[in-house]
Amino acid sequence: MNAPIDWRAEAGRISFRDKAFIGGLFVPSATGKTFDNISPLDGRVLVKIAAGDTEDIDRAVKAARAAFEAGVWADQAPKARKRVLVKLAELIQKHANELALLETLDMGKPILNARNGDVRAVAECVRWYGEAIDKLYDEIAPTPKTALALITREPLGVVGAVVPWNFPLLMAAWKFAPALAAGNSVVLKPAEQSPLSALRVAELAVEAGVPPGVFNVVPGFGESAGQALGRHMDVDALAFTGSTEVGKLFLKYSAESNMKIVSLECGGKTPNIVFADTPDLDTAARGAADGIFYNSGQVCDAASRLIVEDKIHDVFLAKVTALAKSYEPGDPLDEKTQMGAMVDATQTKRVLGFIEKGKAEGATLALGGRQVRQDTGGFFIEPTIFDRVENRMTIAREEIFGPVLPTIVFKTPEEAVKLANDSKYGLEANLWTNDLTKAHRIARSLRVGTVTINNRDGGGIEVPFGGYKQSGFGRDKSLHALDKYSQLKTTYISVG
Ligand code: NAD
């Protein structure tokens, strides 16, 4: 057995990359400006980070374009790119503790979630796309004998990626791994709340053999660096994960610049529908609690609307409430902690605002509702459950992105479907029932990208993930993600 890790001591020893990573080198921002990187564990400034802006984005795009044109990556055989990406996955695994610590210090998630959840999934993602890329064949169209029509898949060129802070490295990997595998160069802008892990992984990528300039990371704010990437005239595609509000801005940036391809993974308000005939109510209750309290509810597909059949409402809510107590916020560096911090003061205030709104609109506060551990200087909110919520209320409609669970009651399957679909979002739905026919029928009626039945998992890297409606378009994960990072070219040859 491995010796236990003293994460606090490790945190004291860790070093931070604080500059932009452009052309294979760490460089200060062109203006010399920096911003404070604050830890949500205790509110202290971890490090000052280079504040990337228009000029830095331009330098990164130029480096990415030069590498693409030179063919140092794009022209390598797929199996050569595979070897490098598999090596990168190994380096990520080798540095798993360091990367997990960066995630925890930067955004407040429990250390074991970071190491055994996020970092493991990042390594798997990078390995998966590496291993996939030399097994994909192109097409020949069914033409007359007098012609040969080749349909080939080609990299786009320069891909921009803008990602959020809730799973900082994993959301980045869902973009950069397929984009790199397909032969593109990448410019990544991590969220200003959580730039540390991406900067370290870009460095590891060069160590693994990704040529300098192919993978660049520019930290900075959304309105400056994010917008500059979205509006850049020489970026071929922009892959975004974040809020619906900002996702819409990227469509505008594209329309007002070079019509770059945009893909959007945006918000969600996942309905978690629990029928009275659920095979195992305890498992369903664990799914409901984990679905909203994991990562302090800062999850795009958090099970953020509990829609429960009236017959089991009391017993089910009692089970979820009992489980919620095990998510009492604790020190994110303590391996026993199940729920850590909110990402920052702004998000904490926002979530507390939603809790007040819930009370004001007449929902019943059944558990929690307060900010806690304020003596630490960090940002923590206790697990919170609302009962007697109506789907028209703000807490049932808006994405709270915090540990707050509204409970809504239904009587018939038709009503459950109507409630579930009555949302501007369509990312995911969870369904618990013993009736296979009912489950299939309802799954078909739900306007969402993923339906889970009798589980909360939703699958790993091998299945696509993305939204209907205002949850966005385009898919992350699976081979389908490669569609976002490649063009189809037809070459029609006369052979008659
Ligand atoms: P956000 O939209 O505020 O920020 C996301 C990214 O966009 C950040 O890098 C930010 O700097 C940048 N940005 C912000 N304003 C910008 C602007 N004006 N122009 C250009 N870029 C800008 O989102 P967030 O608060 O970081 O993350 C939470 C959101 O992310 C939630 O809505 C959540 O649902 C969503 N999310 C979705 C998925 C998914 O796969 N569907 C996954 C994780 C998170």
What does this structure look like?
With 496 residues, the protein is an alpha/beta fold. The protein has 15 helices and 24 strands. A seven-stranded mixed beta sheet has the order 14-17-18-13-12-20-21, with helices on both faces. It has a six-stranded mixed beta sheet with strand order 9-8-7-10-11-23, with helices on both faces. Strand 1 and strand 2 form a beta hairpin. Helix 3 crosses helix 7 (196-208) and helix 4 packs across helix 5 (111-133). It starts with 6 loop residues before the first helix and ends with a strand. The mean pLDDT is 98. The site of nicotinamide-adenine-dinucleotide (NAD) has 30 residues, from helix 8 and helix 9.
Topology (SSEs and partners):
Layout lengths: L6 H7 L6 E3 L2 E3 L6 E5 L6 E6 L3 H17 L7 H17 L1 H12 L3 H23 L5 E2 L6 E9 L2 E5 L5 H14 L3 E5 L6 H13 L6 E3 L4 H10 L5 E5 L2 H13 L4 E5 L5 E4 L6 H13 L11 E5 L3 H12 L20 H16 L3 E4 L3 E2 L7 E2 L2 E4 L6 H4 L6 E7 L2 H9 L3 E2 L1 E5 L3 H10 L4 E4 L14 E2 L2 E2 L12 E9 L2
The structure holds nicotinamide-adenine-dinucleotide.
The site of nicotinamide-adenine-dinucleotide (NAD) has 30 residues, from helix 8 and helix 9.
Structure summary, number of beta strands:
24
Overall pLDDT: 98
Q: Globular, elongated, flat, extended or rod-shaped: what is the shape? A: globular
Which consecutive residue ranges, at least 5 long each, have pLDDT under 50? none
Strand order of the largest sheet: 14-17-18-13-12-20-21
Oligomer: single chain
Biggest pleated-sheet summary: 7 strands, mixed
**How large is the count of helical segments?**
15
Which ligands are bound?
nicotinamide-adenine-dinucleotide
Helix content: 25-40%
Q: What's the end-to-end separation, in Å?
A: 69 Å
Judged by helices, strands and strand pairing, the structural class is alpha/beta
